[in-house]
Amino acid sequence: MSLQSKTSSPGEDVESIPKIGVFVCHCGANIGKVVDCPKVAEAALGLPGVVVSKDIGYACSEPGQQEIKDLIEEYGLERVVVASCSPRLHEPTFRQMLQSAGLNPFLLEMANLREQCSWVHMSEPDAATEKAMDLVKMSVSRARLLWPLVEEVHPLTKRTLVIGGGVAGIQAALDLAENGYEVVLVERKPSIGGTMAQLDKTFPTMDCSI
Amino acid sequence: MTDAGRHPKIKLHTLSEVKEVKGQVGDFTARILKQARYVDESACTACGECAKACPVVRPDEFNLGLSSRKAIYSPFPQAVPSAYVINADECLGHNPSICAKCVDACDKKCINFHMSDEEIYEKVGSIVVATGLSPYDPTEHDEYGYTRFENVLTSLEFERLINAGGPTQGEVLRPTDRKHPKSVGFIQCVGSRSAHKGKEYCSNICCMNTIKSTLMLKEHYPDVDVKVFYIDIRAFGKGFEDLYRRSRRLGVQYIRGLPGSVSETGDRSLSVSVENTMAGKLETHELDMLVLAVGLLPDPGTQRLQEMLGLQLTPDGFYLEAHPKLQPVDAATRGVFFAGCAESPKDIKESVTQASAAAARAIRLMHKGEIAAEPITSMVIEENCKACGKCAEVCPYNAITVDVKKKIPAMVNTAACAGCGTCAAECPFGAIVMNHFTDEQILSQVDALLAENPREKVLAFACNWCSYAGADYAGVSRLQYPPNVRLIRTMCSGRVDEDHIWEGFRKGAPVVLVSGCHIGDCHYIDANHWTEKRVARVWKKMEKLGIRPERLQLEWISAAEGVRFAEVMRSMEKLRQEVTAEEVERTMEILNTKKQ
After folding, report:
1. Engineered SS bond to B203: which of A50, B280, B345, B546, CB 3.0-4.6 Å?
2. For residue B404, what are the contacts with CB-CB under 8 A and spacing of at least 6?
3. Cβ of residue B4 closer than 8 Å to a chain A Cβ
4. Torsion angle in degrees (nearest 10) through CA of B320, B324, B328, B329
5. How close A115 comes to chain B (CA, Å)?
6. If we measure between CA atoms, which residue out of B203, B200, B206, B187 comes closest to residue B259?
């Protein structure tokens, strides 16, 4: 059990709402063309806990991240909401950013304004903007309740299982083995080689494949 | 191939299949079933005396049945390992009165009928999935007569014919009369790029493979007439256009149009009818031999492995990468990587490139020798725990121990916990906290989205790996759907608590959607079975309370089903419109009274 994570759990410290910063990314025109980002940022400023809210051209870019980091320091932010693309894409980027700004990476919350808003409601800018404001509101309420988490480090077996002994499996196995890693290569047939072994000359070089 | 066979760091298991994989990144255990070879791999010198003695003759699958082999055989001359193998289903047996001729013929005494299948356990930190392809079977393209006319071959069969190591030592002979064909035709896109037969995608390699075959034909037999029937020639790679031009320069005719029918003439030649769309006329071509450039399908074992490793597939049936541009060889499951045709049809160069990339990604993960585990795991509040054992029962990873008899509270093994949150959703006493996806955190999102105009909104829960990714995919594909849906992400649909759903209805949500990976595809082994049970439970309760169960929907949407995600959103919106203000209010009343 990671007991560290319990130290600032909600309920224990409920009176003081943490200081939250909201950053609404335009992603160039990807979000900005459909969603009214300045309006979304302005609306977020009225939410409980939000002490700074800004729209940014590209939040993931070096200057974008620097701007957020500067504001984290300037306002003493304790939670960060980035309203940009899918967390499946840039959550690791922004978690790293928080870490380098001295915050626990799990104090980040993202609102998905690109894949799940601007890109899917392209002809309804008003409704998309309204949805964006809702998504930010949801993220801010969640962010208020986030607490820091500490990653546990586990040992790792330096060994790779390669499933399939065709040209791809053989190449991957050799590259790994040549780098000093043990490889277990599993092939269903009696010999490795796969489809490649059945070919004679191969394009573009027109030489033997084996 | 031989490098891989003799490399001291590579342990090779042939005739083997991965049956089960347990554990997580850094600490996987694979159960491998190794079939008996009945020949001692290390002692066999591949002299071939055993095969000479074997009386059983069978079609040689390596040559696609164009030649024969024995029941004891070497798959092909350069096979690795080079040892012979016995196909036990074909062998007559070792009882001397029945056969055992091979045993007598083998000087080295390497044949051992007492070998049995072995179960092997291997511990690894990462996995590269390189399961390859299976060629398309053109039987359903009956107009090309593959099953009716012997001189119609697939591209792979032709490959064996023109291969110096093949059954004819590279001589191209017609199967019917073993004469050199004077004319050969190639039909492109068989099983590819078609909405009706085969697959809709382009198989990537067939154009260049045909061009290569035409060049080889022209090299061996300069006088042979070669015609290629095609839709487009896709010669997009480095050096490809040169080969295409060379083929045209050598006199190969490229005829734009796919044949409508093929019939056999008196001498078993083929008469091909085609609309030449360049010339704008119907033509008939007489050819001695016809080659079908068949497309590539995923390996038949793909789905089984996908379920075993909790991976995702594209609608075409190939493995889905974590991100098409930025993580093209990573699976969404940490520690698993893709190489070669397992991910999509590709040629040798691309397969090799991807394999090296997969190796580099695996090394990047492993080189430190340790791995930081995401702390999104569950934890027990001991004072609330009644040691009922429910959490341990539902945990797909057996990561929770609890002593029901002695009433010792539950304990979570965080190294084994993968963070699905099913335990927290099932705990009847609120004794489990799911880090980063706590009840309070999720409920705060529900409340926030329903704070204003709740009746206008669709509340949807989506799991990170499938449904939320499916929503992202809808975005990447720019599929438009109603803008009033609000998604709440959980790692697994198994995390969605009954209370989260009730809270939605209590706060005025007209409809609620719970969505996750398809049954069998759950990223957390089978946690979504509990989602299914839980939602069914809520439906029953809704009925009892007089709330229309239709207002709660459960949908399985995979990461590749952007189209389906958009469809579900549209149907949810339709459902929402059917819910009246009075109905919502009545529900709120019912639930608020019940709460008090």
Report:
1. B345
2. B387, B388, B389
3. yes
4. -10
5. 4
6. B187
The verdict on a CB contact (< 8 Å) between A1 and B411 is: yes
**B522 touches B310 (CB < 8 A):** yes
Residues 112-141 of A with CB under 8 A from B: 112, 114-117, 119-124, 127-128, 130-131, 134-135, 137-141
Three-class secondary structure of residue B409 per DSSP: strand
B278-299 burial by CB neighbour count: b if 16+ within 10 A, else e? eeeeeeebebbbbbbbbbbbbb
CB B350 within 8 A of CB B356: no
Residue B375 and residue A106: Cβ atoms within 8 Å? Answer: yes
Distance CA B397, CA B523 (A): 12
Do A134 and B449 count as a contact with CB atoms less than 8 A apart? yes
What does the longest C-alpha to C-alpha distance in chain A come to? 74
Torsion sign (Cα): A92, B517, B559, A40: negative
- Contact flag A198-B160 (C-beta cutoff 8 Å): yes
Instruction: Decide: B387 and B371 in contact? Cβ < 8 Å.
Output: no
Please give the Cα distance from A128 to A113 (Å, whole number): 9
CA distance B197 to B138: 9
At B21 the three-state DSSP class reads strand
CB-closest option in B10, B78, B433 to A173: B10
Contact status, residue B326 vs residue B357, Cβ threshold 8 Å: no
| ipTM passes above 0.95 | no
Q: What residues form DSSP beta bridges with A20?
A: A50, A79
Question: Pick from A106, A193, A203: which is nearest to B436 by CB?
Answer: A106
Amino acid symbol at B551: R
- Angstrom distance (rounded) from CA B100 to CA B247: 52
Q: Which residues of B touch A190 (CB under 8 A)?
A: 14-15, 37, 75, 79, 85
Helix axes B527-545 and B581-595, enclosed angle (nearest 10): 100
3-state helix, strand, coil in chain B (%, to 5): 30, 25, 45
| CA-to-CA separations, A36 to A102, A169, B486, B582, in angstroms, rounded | 31, 49, 18, 34
State whether residue A209 sits within 8 Å of chain B by CB. Answer: yes
State whether A204 and B237 contact (CB < 8 Å): yes
The residue type at B93:
G
Q: Does B276 touch chain A (CB under 8 A)?
A: no
Backbone angles phi, psi at B293, to 5 degrees: -80, 90
Mutation pick from B3, B12, B67 vs chain A, by most beta carbons of A within 10 Å, is: B12
- Each of the 596 residues of chain B gets a pLDDT tens digit; together they read 889 999 999 999 999 999 999 888 999 999 999 999 999 999 999 999 999 999 999 999 999 999 999 999 999 989 999 999 999 999 988 777 689 899 999 999 999 999 999 999 999 999 999 999 999 999 999 999 999 999 999 999 999 999 988 999 999 999 999 999 999 999 999 999 999 999 999 999 999 999 999 999 999 999 999 999 999 999 999 999 999 999 999 999 999 999 999 999 999 999 999 999 999 999 999 999 999 999 999 999 999 999 888 888 898 999 999 888 888 999 988 899 999 999 999 999 999 999 999 999 999 999 999 998 889 999 999 999 999 999 999 998 888 999 999 999 999 988 788 899 999 999 999 999 999 999 999 999 999 999 999 999 999 999 999 999 999 999 999 999 999 999 999 999 999 999 999 999 999 999 999 999 998 888 888 899 999 999 999 999 999 999 999 999 999 999 999 999 999 999 999 999 999 999 999 999 999 997 65
Asked if B489 and A87 come within 8 Å (Cβ–Cβ), the reply is yes
**A:B CB pairs within 8 Å:** 383
| Alpha-carbon torsion (B216, B222, B224, B226), positive or negative | positive
